Amino acid sequence: MRAKFFLIIFFCLAFSLSLNTDSRELSIQQLEERKKADRERKEAREKRGKKVFQKEITITTEIVFISKEREVPPVLSNLDPILEDEGFYGVKLAIEDNLTTGRFLGHDYKIEFHRILKQENLENEFKKLMEKGRKFFVVDLNEAELLTLMKIPGIENVIIFNTRAKNDSLRNEDCRKNIFHISPSHSILADALTQYLIKKKWKKWFLVTGPKKTDKLYADALKKSAKKFNVKIKEEKTWDFTSDLRRTAGKEVPIFTKGSSYDVLVVADEAGEFGEYLAYRTWDPRPIVGTQGLRPSSWHRTHEQWGATQMQNRFRRESGRWMTEVDYHSWTAVRAIGETITRIKSDDVKKVQNYLLSSKFGLGAYKGVKVSFRSWNGQLRQPILLAAPRSMVSVSPQEGYIHPFSELDTMGKDQPESTCKF
């Protein structure tokens, strides 16, 4: 009887482990096995013939993904990969998702990938695509490049999804009704982090800012967030050392951080030039947050809730690497187009634009709640992940922050604060 009991327990444990395989990250070996299985299924599908549309195709939507070749700065460590395909696989997976529904409705989706070389003119290349009748653009561009596009005659007749630029100015004085921002702004990221620090009662900050323009923009957002949530910045310094920190961090960081009494070291170093060397070297033992340490972001490889593990594994099988924020933003942009066309049964630019900005739009995006666009500036409202390099810590907005319309609007500039005028 006892042997029979233990045998039952053994089989139950084995069965539960087999069920849990898909609920966690897959190993490289498991990913290779999945890739092999995917290839076998693909070959079987090719033998049967291509997937056919259940209805006659009535709408064919052509989407363009644009990225720009840039000078690649030296990486902090050889462990950091230099990615030149960010966004590509996110778009590819989103097209597959769109077609899952589209084949039943007669809605087809085509994608073009364009990488603008350094010697090419972005404005001229974009005009050529507009002249070909392209209407939907997912762009991996910075602030200056987006501002260049805004000057093109007739640009208001297309829809652009921003997947990289975080500048608050693009959501305020430089906003456009036809430009949608998937990437969270600096102010959204700052507020998401501040809410958590308030929850932990870490209200005394030491703010360290890098020398680059993007560092200063993020630091400005952090200072505004501190004022908004009644946080005291005890000390603020700019990191302007030019020495090789790999050799001198142990000597320079303790002196740099000595003096003030603070709860947390807040870092604005978007390029990753010095932030990683602050940990474990400060004069006082304090946690590090911001662009290093505990970091707010729209997507992170440790994110597993709400079906995200399946998305992570699916992406890794396709690309062989982790999903980045730009990959996730690109997937979200293409899915937003597909979701809208599915609902309104039209790919007319003005109709799509109006629906995206309406309260009717909502998209499941592995965040636990549907994401949507703010009607006053085109910013995607979404939960923000707070993650350490190898663990998910929390998700903002934090519990207790309320709003008359959406708790997600407690992060970033709310409508009364916005200076965007469509």
Helix content: 25-40%
Question: What's the level 1 CATH class of the largest domain?
Answer: Alpha Beta
- The number of distinct β-strands equals 15
CATH architecture of the largest domain: 3-Layer(aba) Sandwich
Apparent shape: globular
Question: Largest sheet at a glance?
Answer: 5 strands, parallel
Number of domains: 2
SSE pattern, N- to C-terminal = HHEHEHEHEEHEHEHEEEHHHEEEEE
According to CATH, the homologous superfamily of the largest domain is: Response regulator
Residue runs with pLDDT of under 50 for 5 or more positions: 1-23
How large is the radius of gyration?
24 Å
Task: Work out the helix count.
Answer: 11
If strands are numbered along the chain, what order do they take across the biggest sheet?
Answer: 2-1-3-4-5
Structural class by secondary-structure content: alpha/beta
Mean pLDDT: 89
Can you tell me the CATH topology of the largest domain?
A: Rossmann fold
- The termini sit apart by 76 Å
Give the DSSP E fraction (strand runs of 2 or more residues). 15-25%
Provide structural commentary.
By secondary structure, this protein is of the alpha/beta class. The protein folds into 2 domains: 59-184 and 299-381, Response regulator (Rossmann fold); 187-297, Rossmann fold (3-Layer(aba) Sandwich), CATH 3.40.50.2300. It contains 11 helices and 15 strands. A hairpin with a 2-residue loop joins strand 14 (384-388) and strand 15 (391-396). Residues 1-23 have low confidence and may be disordered.
Based on the model shown, name its key terms:
2 domains, 11 helices, globular, Rossmann fold, five-stranded parallel sheet, 422 residues, alpha/beta, four-stranded parallel sheet, disordered N terminus, 18% strand
